[in-house]
């Protein structure tokens, strides 16, 4: 890798760190190509990205970003999973790590808050941004539905009462 490629890699990583909501640092403990492809596919489906980068270049890229605190985690054969959704990357990596012991969660960061491996797992157990939006929309729509039912209920009751009087007479 020559100087221009390194500068381009640092700039690319820096752009990622400035856009994302969460970063998860993983350690590769001997993933096969098929396993690595499976992990990348799962992460991509979750709306996140997964990148293996030289630690030295990644440390340069995190300078002057909210993720400067993860510099100590970048030792050994590491890779970085990142997503705009604060839960997507963590959820995908933790899910994969449950079924594969060749990947280790080293830690992560959500903005300036550095996370331990347990913190990343706790973050993964939270509902995703889309799930929260769906819940919120459901909660907002529920009262409107109930109001509509309440406003039509008296009229329906009145119609049944009139119908009963008509049959009795």
TrEMBL record:
CDD domains: Ribosomal_L10. Pfam families: Ribosomal_L10 (PF00466). GO terms for biological process: translation. GO terms for molecular function: large ribosomal subunit rRNA binding; structural constituent of ribosome. The keyword Cell membrane does not apply. Keywords: Ribonucleoprotein, Ribosomal protein, RNA-binding, rRNA-binding. GO terms for cellular component: large ribosomal subunit. Belongs to the universal ribosomal protein uL10 family. Part of the ribosomal stalk of the 50S ribosomal subunit. The N-terminus interacts with L11 and the large rRNA to form the base of the stalk. The C-terminus forms an elongated spine to which L12 dimers bind in a sequential fashion forming a multimeric L10(L12)X complex. Forms part of the ribosomal stalk, playing a central role in the interaction of the ribosome with GTP-bound translation factors. This is Large ribosomal subunit protein uL10. It comes from Novosphingobium ginsenosidimutans.
């Amino acid at each position: 890798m020559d100087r221009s490629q390194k500068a381009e890699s640092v700039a690319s990583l820096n752009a990622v760190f400035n856009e994302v909501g969460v970063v998860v640092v993983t350690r590769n403990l001997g993933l096969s190509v098929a396993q690595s492809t499976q992990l990348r596919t799962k992460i991509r489906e979750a709306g996140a990205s997964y990148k293996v980068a030289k630690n030295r270049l990644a440390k340069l890229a995190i300078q002057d970003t909210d993720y400067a605190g993860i510099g100590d985690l970048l030792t050994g054969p590491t890779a970085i999973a990142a997503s705009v959704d604060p839960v997507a990357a963590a959820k995908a990596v933790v899910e994969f790590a449950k079924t594969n012991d060749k990947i280790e969660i080293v830690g992560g960061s959500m903005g300036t808050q550095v996370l331990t491996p347990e913190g990343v797992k706790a973050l993964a157990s939270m509902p995703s941004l889309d799930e929260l939006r769906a819940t919120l929309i459901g909660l907002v729509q529920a009262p409107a539905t109930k109001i509509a039912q309440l406003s039509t209920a008296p009229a329906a009751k009145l119609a049944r009462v009139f119908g009963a009087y008509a049959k009795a007479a």
